[in-house]
Amino acid sequence: MAMEAHDIEALLRVSFPDARITITDLAGDGNHYAAEVIDESFRGLNRVQQQRAVYAALKGKMDGPAGELHALALTTKAPD
Length: 80
Known about the structure:
It comes from Paracoccus hibiscisoli. InterPro entries: BolA, BolA-like_sf, BolA/IbaG_stress_morph_reg. This protein has helices at residues 5-15, 47-57; strands at 20-25, 32-38, 71-77. The chain is of the alpha+beta class. The protein has a single domain, classed as BolA-like (GMP Synthetase, Chain A, domain 3). The chain has a three-stranded mixed sheet.
């Protein structure tokens, strides 16, 4: 089952309510997205820690072959 961009953003908003979030559907199939998440909570974290926080916020939607979201290219950072 495919996901909509607004569904991905809604999941992320729970963990990152003040973030600047941009979701882009890369293939038009609801399975391949890019997400940019800019949030103050990332300050002092390395890139792996930031991306783990984003994956945790997705609540298992990318887990295994039965996951609703197949691919997510992530860009994460703290605000400038």
